[in-house]
Amino acid sequence: MNRRDRGQSTVELALSLPLLCLFVCGLLQVAVVVRNQVAVQLAAREAARAAAVAADPQTAARLAAEQAIALDPLQVSIVEHDGAVTAQVRFIDHTDVPFIGMFMPDVVITASVTMAAEPP
Known about the structure:
Layout: H1 8-53, H2 57-68, E1 75-81, E2 84-93, E3 107-116
Antiparallel strand pairs: 1-2, 2-3
């Protein structure tokens, strides 16, 4: 090994480490968005199920969706048509992983589930 090459790997690590950290933070933010997408889908399913069997579909759906997941604020709307109820859930996922908010805007996550309405 030549004396001039002794610190080469340290310099390469110092130059590449910020990029590696940024990549890991981006990967973490994508994982958070995917987790929240699954949670919003679950909330829509629970809201549609509750609205399909309740006398007051709007209130039942909102309560069921809020109890299913802990995302706040969760927007739940119910549409009734032709013997079916459709639950639409919307959540704005703020990019809160460090440094990623500068590069990735907030993500709007929506889910919609339709179920046959059953008499209460």
